[in-house]
Amino acid sequence: MRLNQYIACSGYCSRRQAERFITAEKVLVNGKTAPHVFFVKVNDHVEIEGQRILHTSQKVYILLNKPRGIICTASPAIANNIIDFVGYSERIFPVGRLDKETEGLILLTNDGSIVNELMKQENKQEKEYIVTVDKKITAAFMDDLSNGVDIYIPRIKGYMKTMDCPVTQLDDYTFRIILSQGLNRQIRKMCRRFHYTVTHLQRVRIKHIELGSLEVGQWRHLTEEELAGLNR
């Protein structure tokens, strides 16, 4: 098995993060710095920054209804991190992130192989949100959001127009929006362009997986049907 895949399958991190560790020469195999392309054999000893990496065949897939205030990081040094909040007995990590003030559906796993498939922008995986804003919604505001909005992207130090997306008004202050992008704080920035402030933001669906009636702060394992949909 390729080294990056071996690390991801151990649940230590995603395959992309494993690549970063290898490039930074933080991965040792049998006591020696691992080359960028390496295939792990049965008796190889793999470690990252002194921690032994063990491959596991038991995959874990968890759906959490994340509360406000919980931070989507696996770093134990950060207070209110999502791993400590879930308190799962095995090593897992979040797939993507929700910002600290956003609640709702987030997946956690020890299977690094699904991360890229779910998070790659070109895969156009739908993510659905319920949004509440601070003043009455207008038809013009709904149209503007659905037709794409120029928002500032720090990574490119410039503006990018968001993709067209379905937007449905639910009441005077609440709407439903379906995105197939994963830009940082995208919905909040889209609303701010039209002088609206998001007061509550909840993700209720990723692809075919729905939050349903799961209460805030609770989690469950994915069903067989949900897992089958991930693999399609």
TrEMBL record:
The keyword RNA-binding applies. InterPro entries: PsdUridine_s_RsuA/RluB/E/F_cat (IPR042092), PsdUridine_synth_cat_dom_sf (IPR020103), PsdUridine_synth_RsuA/RluA (IPR006145), PsdUridine_synth_RsuA/RluB/E/F (IPR000748), PsdUridine_synth_RsuA/RluB_CS (IPR018496), RsuA_PseudoU_synthase (IPR050343), S4_RNA-bd (IPR002942), S4_RNA-bd_sf (IPR036986). Its EC number is 5.4.99.-. SUPFAM superfamilies: Alpha-L RNA-binding motif, Pseudouridine synthase. The keyword RNA-binding applies. Pfam families: PseudoU_synth_2, S4. Keywords: Isomerase, RNA-binding. It comes from the Bacteria. Residues 1-62 form the RNA-binding S4 domain. Belongs to the pseudouridine synthase RsuA family. This is Pseudouridine synthase.
